[in-house]
Every structure is written in C-alpha cells, then in structure tokens.
Design a protein that fits this description.
mainly beta, Jelly Rolls, 5-stranded antiparallel beta sheet, 20 strands, binds calcium ion
C-alpha cells in the first residue's frame, strides 16, 4: 500500500504538473496536510478535509468547510513558508472553486509585512494567478477564507519569476513616465498603465459590472479604467475596485484622481482597513469631461486600502489616482 502511494506521488508530480520550480511543498494535497499549517482562531469554526471526490488533479484536494466566520479575516487560515528574497517577484497560482459562486478567498504573502489579494471563486475549478514582489525575505503564503460555505483548493504553486520576463517592456516605460514613483505617490499603478495589476475588481451581492481598460481616450498615459455597472449589488461595496496603499498611521494624505462619466454618475471612494474596521468614504459626481477630484484623509492604520465603489448604473472612468503625504508646515 505504501509503495503504491509513493508510486502514485511520483506519477502525479511528474506528469500532471511540472512542479520542479514550485517553492511550496505538497501544493496539491496529495500528501494530506503535510507542510501546511491549518488554523481556526477564536470563535471561528471550520473543518479542513482531504477531499478524494472533488479534486482538480491527483487523488486529493483541500476541502475547507467554513461554518462560522471569526471577527478577523485571518481567523480561518492555512499557511506555508517558502524561500523568498526581498524585491524578487513571485507568481502564485492555484486552482479553486466553492460550493456557490461569489465566495472570497484571500491569498496573502506575509512575515512582518502583509500583501494580499482577494479572489472571487465560482462553482467551477478555475486557475487563479497573482504576481507579487516580495517586501521582505522569508515570506509565507497564507489563505484566508472570507465566507461561509465550502472551498476547494488544489495545485498551489509559487514560482520565482525571472527578471526579464515578468513584465512587458512597454508597460514598464509608460508606468514610470506617467504614474510617478511609488515612494512619492503611495500607490502603484494608479494610472492603469499596467492594466489591472495590483487592483482587485469585485462583483458580489448579485451585482454585475464590466471592468475594462480604455486605451483609446484615457486621461493620461495609454490606459484608464472604465467600469460599467450593469446591476448594483445589495450593498454599496459589493461592486468595487480596490488595492493596497502604502500609508502610515496618523499621517495625513491627499488623494487625487481624475474621473468622468456618462450622465453625472456618483463616484464613491473609500480608504479602509478591514482588519481594524476603519472606513472613510467620500462621494463625488463625475461629469462628462475628465475632471480632477481631491480629498484629504488621515490614515487610521498602516494597512489601508483604497476602494472605489461602483454605485451608479452606467459607465464611469478613472485615471491618474495619486496619494501624497501632506507635510506639516
Ligand atoms: Ca491534488
Ligand atoms: Ca493612465
């Protein structure tokens, strides 16, 4: 039996995926939960199982049944450390699905810093990909389960990206030219010159939206974000675009962005720290022509995100989003 098991392991690892560059171990859960730390904290309740019926490949997948959510997004998590170096780029890939479409799975790279991305799963196996630059050495990959229900995950792969093939050269040039450097704007790719890189577009709560890049008539550079809300969600935050921003607690910042819409649409912008439940939002009306909007805010934490809530039916465009610290005189 044991021999059979190992023979099988060899077959799956060599034929199904060329995982020799995978920095994770047992990303396909063929070796049960080995190498993974699975946890539920406080009042959260979840069951982790090796699923032999519902799997993407091999014989098993990870099945997480979330019964009760905790107070924090990380209360139900799984984590595995891998060898990483600061400033190197990594690609994270995995297959996942949920018992119902719309469940959010959050992937996070962490050690003393936290860089996360949320993925909205469907009820069918799909490949999800995320590229991220390591903010420090010795990261771990964590997954957080943000909704009640059943999640299935298989074939998690973390690979180091080679220096010369991680971005198209043209987008690198334009992002430097138009979006400014990260150190002064606190926000990367605020001009959408790298497409939706670092942005997460969410549709939830029955909402429907079309997220596009407008490469014909952006405000600046070669691209802007064009969002058409087809059906609002139950809540204002159900359809949104968000990203991590680099701010420090208690410092004051000026957020500026350009927007336009067909039909004077409402634009809602929010800075937030979901972990600490800090939400600060402002709404504007965007007219037919590109117009500059600006808003000062004080960061309530050092882990804030910027979220644009899409609340008005129709099309709104955004470009040149910047966040700059206001220096005291
Ligand atoms: Ca598997
Ligand atoms: Ca742009």
């Amino acid at each position: 039996m044991k021999n059979l098991f190992f023979a099988f392991l060899l077959i799956t690892s060599s034929t199904v995926f060329s995982q020799k560059d995978n920095l994770l171990k047992n990303g396909g859960f063929e070796n049960n939960f080995n190498n993974w730390e699975l946890n539920t904290l406080d009042k959260a309740k979840a069951f982790f199982k090796n699923d032999k019926k519902t799997k993407f490949s091999g014989e098993k997948s990870l099945n997480v049944e979330v019964v009760d959510l905790g107070a924090n997004t990380w209360d139900i998590h799984m984590v595995q450390p891998f060898t990483s170096r600061k400033n190197s780029k990594y690609q994270i890939q995995f297959y996942a699905k949920a018992n119902r479409s719309g469940k959010i799975l959050k992937a996070q790279l962490q050690n003393t810093t936290y860089t996360g991305r949320e993925f909205q799963l469907t009820d069918e196996w799909k490949l999800y990909t995320w590229e991220s630059k390591a903010k420090e050495d010795d990261l771990a990959l964590a997954f957080h389960f943000l909704g009640k229900g059943t999640y299935y995950i298989d074939n998690i792969v973390v690979e180091k990206l080679r220096k010369n093939n991680n971005k198209k050269p043209s987008s690198n040039n334009t992002s430097n030219k138009y979006s400014g450097s990260k150190s002064t704007t606190m926000i990367g790719n605020g001009g959408f010159e790298d497409g939706f890189a670092d942005w997460v577009n969410v549709t939830d709560g029955g909402g429907k939206a079309d997220f596009k890049l407008n490469r014909r008539s952006p405000y600046e550079g070669e691209s802007s974000m064009k969002v058409t809300l087809l059906k609002p969600g139950k809540n204002q935050w159900d359809v949104q675009s968000f990203k991590e921003i680099n701010v420090k607690k208690n410092k004051t910042y000026k957020l500026t962005f350009y927007a336009r819409s067909v039909g004077n649409k409402k634009v809602k912008v929010q800075v937030q720290d979901d972990f600490k439940k800090i939400y600060k939002s402002t709404t504007f009306n965007a007219g037919f022509e590109w117009e500059k909007f600006s808003w000062d805010f004080k960061a309530g934490s050092s882990q804030m995100q910027l979220a644009i809530h899409h609340i008005g039916l129709g099309t709104v465009e955004y470009d040149s989003i910047k966040i700059e610290q206001i220096k005291k005189k």
